[in-house]
Amino acid sequence: MKKLVILGGGYGGLALIQELFSSYLPHDLEVVLIDRMPYQGLKTEYYALAAGTVADTELRVKFPVYDKLSIHYGEVTSVDLESKLVYLYNDDPIEYDQLAIALGCTDQYHGVPGAEEFTCSLQSFSGARETYLRLNNLKPYGQVHIVGGGLSGIELASDLRESRPDLNIAILDRGARVLSSFPNRLSAYIQRWFAENNVEIHSGVSVSRVEKDVVYNVDQPIPTDITVWTAGIQPVSVIQNLDLPKDRSGRILLNDLYQVPSHPEVYVIGDCASLPFVPSAQAAGAQAEQIGYVLKALWRDDTPKVHPLKLKGTLGSLGKRAGFGLMGSTSVMGRVPRLLKSGVLWKSKRHF
């Protein structure tokens, strides 16, 4: 039997499984999914869990059931590329013939002292749960600072405003405007929404260190009750510890078929892979589908054909009634993008 092992049951790992099992697979193939959780967590919505606007159970998706698919629950600690072994915490290693790594990302603290110790996170289900407890146990009029004016920070701030209208909420962003990679028109719309809903935006803030109740803008102390970190991501430690060529963001460099050039039996998906896109669930899913095509072609002894990835755009929410998006070069704002995002979430929950 040949064994394909997939590390991670997130957007990329499950998109690969869906593509593989959409048609006939070799009779001598076994597919093994390894994940530390017994379900997929919809990571793009962890901000809502943290804010308290959705329940934990609303963001769980059951893993699919197929005859040739087995699921092993465990936490991956390392991968031995030479011996073709995946090591798990407090468990026996698992052998593979082919490997797809889709382990996702974790917070990037940029070397800021105290950031990891004294801030809350949205990068895991357990982290979002803990952030929810802290935010929603905070007394009225408490001060919340969100470090980072990107998509996660904006969505967390807007949902928290709806969930806790009694709190003082502020975004600390090092740029001149929130969502700086998007058109000025979108940033201006978001800033107006925040102004109308009493969410402060502090631009040009360079967080130099974090303490228990203080965030420092260089040497200026900013008193706070809770600080949430949304100021960057990086691949998980398993990827960081692999001795492979990587890009400046620490993501693994791949060939045209998304294989590790020195180990073509290994594929890397999503946030762990060096792709020409900002890391996202959409990019991970689109790339994983192509890897599925590649694998099936190779199993048939065909020559794989891979086309450049094309993404549909980006959608964001401002609470439950407003949203924004970028479709190609077109900016969309208001109720429609929020409804579109709700539709995408509905589809994700019923993917299998």
TrEMBL record:
Keywords: FAD, Flavoprotein, Oxidoreductase
Domain named FAD/NAD(P)-binding: residues: 3-285
Superkingdom: Bacteria
Gene3D superfamilies: 3.50.50.100
Cofactor or coenzyme needed: FAD
Transmembrane segments: none
GO MF annotation terms: NAD(P)H dehydrogenase (quinone) activity
GO biological process terms, semicolon-separated: aerobic electron transport chain
UniProt cross-references to PANTHER family, sorted A to Z: 64 KDA MITOCHONDRIAL NADH DEHYDROGENASE (EUROFUNG) (PTHR42913:SF3), APOPTOSIS-INDUCING FACTOR 1 (PTHR42913)
Recorded family membership: Belongs to the NADH dehydrogenase family.
Protein name as annotated: NADH dehydrogenase
Organism per entry: Paenibacillus uliginis N3/975
